[in-house]
Amino acid sequence: MTTPTIELKPSASPLSAAERDAILVAPGFGRHFTDHMVTIRWTEGRGWHDGQLVPYGPLSLDPANMTLHYAQEIFEGLKAYRQPDGSVATFRPEKNATRFQASARRLGMPELPVETFIEACDVLVRQDAAWVPAHGGEESLYLRPFMIATEVGLGVKPANEYLFLVIASPAGAYFPGGVRPVSIWLSEDRVRAVPGGVGDAKTGGNYAASLLAQAEAAAKGCEQVCYLDAVEHRWVEELGGMNLYFVYGDRIVTPGLTGSILEGVTRDSLLTVARDLGYTAEEGRVSVEQWQRDAENGSLTEVFACGTAAVITPVGTVKRESAEWRQSGGEPGEVTLKLRSALLDVQRGITPDRHGWMHRLG
To answer: Which of 50, 130, 159, 313 is buried deepest, with most CB atoms within 10 A?
Structure first.
């Protein structure tokens, strides 16, 4: 694989410090974007080339661009955190880089070298470092690397040209008023992904497939939708954009990777964090019947979802067509809050980085 250099072409008119600071007071999530982006092209026979940092701006696409018709598109999400000494560090970017490669393989796209993925993120964060919120809260700079096909044509085949980009958006605390349990709708007729499909790739099609069920969940008064396996419609898999964990006292279980579940970076990290804290943490199978039964008899003490955006989200109310129940009395559980705090403390540089997860930019 070729590893292109990234040429710096910064904006001559970035947002003023006053305008930027006003945004950082309450950035929300994915609503505002930094001054720059990184682009790298791939062409068949030439490989990766023309890496550039340029002003953030629109893309120009031909109506016959193959991504618009055949959805050759993948993306990632990771965060940069301000550290106590004022430096900036990203959380486990190599894990996102290797997952990006796996997604590319599944969709017939070229694999970006891990070191190029990390360098592209580093270049953007260094250039737009003033956009990384101050240390002290849960705020961060969210990075969105993604790749699309750029070949023009309507033939159904892998494209011969691609564009990789990284953009960044300041992100506020996911729960501005404190950690709040979410309500879950169990979708027993619609599925997110099937064995042998693209459920373990981070591609937009998976999220598009979840939108109808998400709307149905909202109509039922729920904020998130949980999917079951596509074969038996019995085994719990994941939410539309987050993995799930089940807490049985000192034992913590997350559904095992079946090929239709996304291998979340936060999911993987929490297996390690939980063991560090003395819990038994494992992958396994949890049926929807077991979930309801164990919640009602009290042996299932907590349930939480996890992902890059929210870190850890407690589950409060669960609904299905035939029943409804509450977890932890509808309040955040002790284990959930302990794990959340432990992971955030590593990301924000408050506790020692025992596993070398933080990638410091200086």
So the answer is: 313
Range of the domain at 74: 6-171
CA 123 to chain centre: 21
d(Cα 157, Cα 161) in Å, to the nearest integer?
Answer: 12
Task: Please give the Cα distance from 176 to 160 (Å, whole number).
Answer: 44
The two beta strands, 161-171 and 36-43, are: antiparallel
* β pairing state of 88-91 and 358-360: antiparallel
What is the number of domains present in the chain? 2
Let me know the angle formed at the C-alpha of 200 by 265 and 183, rounded to the nearest 5 degrees: 70
DSSP strand pairing (311-320 vs 182-187): parallel
Verdict on whether the full-model pTM lies above 0.85:
yes
Whole-number Cα distances in Å, 62 to 38, 68, 147, 252: 21, 9, 16, 49
Residue 356 included in any domain: no
Handedness of CA 138, 139, 145, 148 (dihedral sign): positive
Query: What CATH number does residue 300 fall under?
Result: 3.20.10.10
Neighbours of 71 (CB within 10 A): 16
Rounded to an integer, what distance in angstroms lies between the CA atom of residue 173 and that of residue 309? 9
Q: What is the pLDDT of residue 231?
A: 94
Q: How far apart are CA 198 and CA 103, in angstroms?
A: 8
pLDDT single digits (tens) 103-146: 999 999 999 999 999 999 999 999 999 999 999 888 999 999 99
